[in-house]
From TrEMBL:
Keywords carried by this UniProt record: FAD, Flavoprotein, Oxidoreductase
Family per similarity comment: Belongs to the L2HGDH family.
InterPro entries in alphabetical order: FAD-dep_OxRdtase (IPR006076), FAD/NAD-bd_sf (IPR036188)
Keyword Chaperone carried by entry: no
Cofactor(s) it depends on: FAD
The name this protein goes by in its record: L-2-hydroxyglutarate dehydrogenase, mitochondrial
Highest taxon of the lineage: Eukaryota
Domain FAD dependent oxidoreductase as annotated: residue spans: 4-131
Entry GO MF terms: (S)-2-hydroxyglutarate dehydrogenase activity
Catalytic function, reaction form: (S)-2-hydroxyglutarate + A = 2-oxoglutarate + AH2
UniProt EC number: 1.1.99.2
Pfam families found in the cross-reference section: DAO
Length: 134
């Protein structure tokens, strides 16, 4: 057999690249090569399953922009395809008093990166979300 394109790796990146290639060029003869027995069985199968928000990256950086945009696209794709997910959020906690300025700086960074759904909460709201968090 001969192919126009071969994508090496049937993880999330390889399969997403193959899908995009076929959507843009439906007549391509495309092969996906994978060393494991099943797709997403190597690195993609060992990740945390978290869709990152972009809160940690330098404001205006390509990483920040792609993270925020990618998260929105991922949720949209899941909605369109009926793929279930749980958007439970993330709790970033200042344990010591001297960590509060860093927490506020992280919050500001998230705002600058247009990360949706950010809010600062106090001890009472933290306890409602995570009763064992101190």
């Amino acid at each position: 057999s001969s192919f126009d394109v071969a994508v090496v790796g049937a993880g999330i990146v390889g399969l997403a690249a193959a899908r995009e290639l076929l959507q843009r060029h439906p007549s391509l003869a495309l092969a996906v090569l994978e060393k494991e027995q099943e797709p997403a069985h190597h690195q993609s199968g060992h990740n945390s399953g978290v869709i990152h928000s972009g809160i940690y990256y330098t404001p205006g950086s390509l990483k920040a922009k792609l993270c925020v945009q990618g998260a929105a696209l991922c949720y949209k794709y899941c909605d369109q395809k009926g793929i279930p997910y749980r958007q439970c959020g993330k709790l970033i906690v200042a344990v010591e008093q001297d960590e509060i300025p860093r927490l506020k700086a992280l919050y500001e960074r998230g705002l600058q990166n247009n990360v949706p759904g950010l809010k600062l909460i106090g001890a009472k709201e933290i306890q409602e979300k995570e009763p064992f968090c101190r």
